[in-house]
Specification:
Length: about 350
C-alpha cells in the first residue's frame, strides 16, 4: 500500500509499505477523508516527539472498515466509522484507573503517527476495534467527521480540565480549531462570558458564532493585563490554553482568580520547562490549579460527541475552510497547515464519498 510518511525530521514523502495485519480484536480500515493537525507539523518539522523514519503520518479521519478480527462483535466490513486520534488499550491498568489515554505509558494511547503508522495511507490499523471505533451517523459528512477525531474531543477536554461551570467567565487562549471547540464547549457548559484570544479574522468570526463574547489580541499587550482591565481587576474563573508557547502559562496564571482552574490542551513542541509566576500563583498557595491532559479517546466519547452534531447542537462546518479531493493533495494540505494563511482554520482531504 501507499502512505504519506515522515522520512526523517524535516522530510516527508510517499512510501510503499505492507498492508497492516488485523489482530483478533482489531480492524483494518481505508480512509474516507483525513485532516491535517498542527501536531503533524510539530512532529515532522520540529521533531517534537523525536526522530521518526518512514512513519506514516496522520491521526485525524473517518473510514470504511475493510477487515475485522474474529473477536470483534460490533463492526463488520463495509461499516463507515468515526476514528479517534487516541486509541487506548482498554484492558490496561491505566484505563482501569481512569486514564485510558496513557494506557501503556504516558501519552501511549496516542498511537497513530507517534509510534505506529497513521491514517494517511490506503489502509490503516485500529487496535481494540469495539472499544475505539464508532459508527458514522448518516447525517454527518465525512469532512465534519474528521473534526470528531481530535479537534472536538481535544477542545472539549480543555473545558473539562478547566472545570467550567454555569455562569463562569472563561478565557480561551488560542482560537485555532481546538480553541474554537473550547469556546463551543464552554458555551455548552453554561459560561456566561467567554473571552477569546486570537487575531485572524476567520477565527474571530467563527469564535463569535460559537459563543465568544469578547476578544483580545496579544499584539495589544500582555493578555493578563487586558483581561484584568476587562474584569475590573477580578480575573476569570477558568482558563483554557489551546495555543501559545511555554510562557503562556504566565499569562494564564496572572489572569486567573484564586481558586480558578487552568485546562491546558496545547501541544508544547519545544523547550525544557514552562514558567509559572511565583507571586501571581499566590507564592505557591493561591489555589490556582493547572491541569494538562491528552484528550480521552474511545468509542463512548465519540458516540456522545457525534450525537451533539447529529442533533444540531454543534455545527462543525466553520472549521473546514479548505477541502480537497484526492490523495494528490495531502502534501499541499500539510504545507498549508504549516504555513497557516490568514483564511485557514483546517484543511481536509476527501478520498471517497
Amino acid at each position: 500500500m501507499k502512505g504519506y510518511a515522515m522520512l526523517k525530521i524535516g522530510s516527508s514523502g510517499w512510501i510503499e509499505k505492507e498492508r497492516p495485519a488485523c489482530g483478533p480484536l482489531d480492524a483494518v480500515c481505508r480512509p474516507l477523508a483525513v485532516a491535517i493537525c498542527t501536531s503533524d507539523i510539530h512532529t515532522l518539522w520540529e521533531g517534537a516527539i523525536g526522530e521518526r523514519h518512514n512513519m506514516i503520518l496522520g491521526h485525524e479521519g473517518c473510514a470504511e472498515v475493510v477487515e475485522v478480527g474474529e473477536l470483534v462483535k460490533d463492526f463488520k466490513p463495509g461499516d463507515r466509522v468515526l476514528v479517534p486520534a487516541i486509541t487506548p488499550d482498554w484492558n490496561s491498568l491505566e484505563a482501569q484507573a481512569g486514564y485510558s489515554m496513557h494506557s501503556g505509558g504516558m501519552l501511549a494511547g496516542w498511537k497513530f503517527s507517534n509510534f505506529k503508522d497513521g491514517v494517511f495511507a490506503e489502509y490503516f490499523h485500529v487496535n481494540d476495534a469495539d472499544g475505539n471505533l464508532a459508527l458514522l451517523p448518516d447525517n454527518i459528512s465525512t469532512v465534519d467527521a474528521c473534526m470528531l477525531s481530535d479537534m472536538v474531543p481535544t477542545g472539549f477536554h480543555g473545558v473539562e480540565l478547566a472545570d467550567v461551570q454555569f455562569g463562569d467567565t472563561v478565557l480561551v487562549i488560542g482560537i485555532g480549531p481546538v480553541g474554537l471547540m473550547s469556546v463551543a464547549g464552554a458555551a455548552l457548559r453554561g459560561a456566561s462570558r467567554i473571552i477569546a484570544v486570537g487575531t485572524r479574522p476567520v477565527c474571530v468570526e467563527a469564535a463569535r458564532k460559537y459563543g465568544a463574547t469578547d476578544f483580545i489580541s496579544y499584539k495589544n499587550g500582555p493578555i493578563a493585563r487586558q483581561v484584568l482591565d476587562m474584569t475590573s481587576g477580578k480575573g476569570v474563573d477558568c482558563v483554557v490554553i489551546a495555543g501559545g508557547d511555554n510562557d503562556t502559562f504566565i499569562e494564564a496564571v496572572e489572569a486567573l482568580k484564586p481558586g480558578g482552574k487552568i485546562g491546558n490542551v496545547n501541544y508544547l513542541g519545544s523547550g525544557d520547562t514552562i514558567s509559572i509566576p511565583r507571586v501571581a500563583w499566590g507564592v505557591g498557595m493561591g489555589h490556582k490549579q493547572i491541569n494538562g491532559g491528552l484528550m480521552p479517546g474511545g468509542r463512548l466519547r465519540l458516540e456522545k460527541l457525534a450525537s451533539l452534531v447529529s442533533a444540531g447542537r454543534l455545527d462543525l462546518s466553520p472549521l473546514s475552510t479548505h477541502v480537497f479531493d484526492g490523495w494528490q493533495h495531502i502534501e499541499e494540505a500539510l504545507y498549508l497547515m504549516r504555513d497557516k494563511p490568514r483564511d485557514l482554520i483546517k484543511p481536509v482531504v476527501k478520498l471517497a464519498d
